[in-house]
Amino acid sequence: MFKTNVGSVDRILRFVVGLVLIALVFVGPQTPWGWLGLIPLATGLFRTCPAYSLIGVNTCKK
After folding, report:
1. Please, what is the Cα angle at 8 between 26 and 41, to 5 degrees?
2. What is the model's pTM?
3. CA angle, corner 43, sides to 42 and 48, nearest 5?
4. Which domain of life is it from (predicted)?
5. Is the CB of residue 25 less than 8 Å from the CB of residue 35?
């Protein structure tokens, strides 16, 4: 469906950032803003980033 444009290092960073943001929903300030962590988590899982597609960035090695 979408072209892969997220490389392995970028993917790992997205997983970590996503999990940290989601963890903030349960511990820490406990605000609903932590649910924004689903976005980097999903883009890391599916290895595609719509924003990267719009600006023409590709961190995936060919």
Report:
1. 25
2. 0.86
3. 140
4. Bacteria
5. yes
> pLDDT (tens digit, 9 = 90+) per residue, 10-28?
999 999 999 999 999 999 8
The residue behind tokens 């976005």 is 39
- Using CA atoms, how far residue 18 sits from 1, 11, 27, 38, 48, in Å, is 23, 10, 14, 6, 15
Res 42: pLDDT: 96
Q: Which residues contact 33 (CB under 8 A, 6 or more apart)?
A: 21, 24
CA distance 32 to 28: 11
What is the residue type of 5?
N
Tell me the C-alpha distance between 39 and 59, whole Å.
17
